[in-house]
Write a structure and sequence with these properties.
The chain is mainly beta and 85 residues long. The protein contains one helix and four strands. The chain has one domain: Ubiquitin-like (UB roll), CATH 3.10.20. Strands 1, 2, 3 and 4 form a four-stranded mixed β-sheet that branches. The longest helix has 12 residues.
């Protein structure tokens, strides 16, 4: 995918939860903001464990998600936004 993960292509990244193999994926993830609001971020590049499903975000992606969540409508119960690199 070429997303700039902090590892070399030939090095397998292990999950910090179960030590399973992590792989690059694009997925949708929910984020709870406030007491009653959920924002689903679509097409988000992540590292996801093949074994337990744990996900990790690269720092650049998390910074973008932080900006998306800050701009979200906190009065809405559910909002869906698309991640755009």
């Amino acid at each position: 995918m070429g997303r700039g993960w902090a590892y070399q292509e030939n090095t397998e990244v292990k999950c910090r939860i179960c030590a399973g193999a992590m792989e690059e994926r694009v997925t949708d993830l929910p984020f709870k903001i406030g007491d009653t609001s959920i924002v689903i971020v679509r097409s988000l590049p992540v590292l996801q464990c093949r074994q337990c499903g744990e996900t990790e975000l690269e720092n650049v992606a998390m910074a973008r998600v932080d900006r998306l969540l800050a701009a979200a409508d906190r009065s809405a119960e559910l909002e869906v936004v698309r991640y755009a690199a």
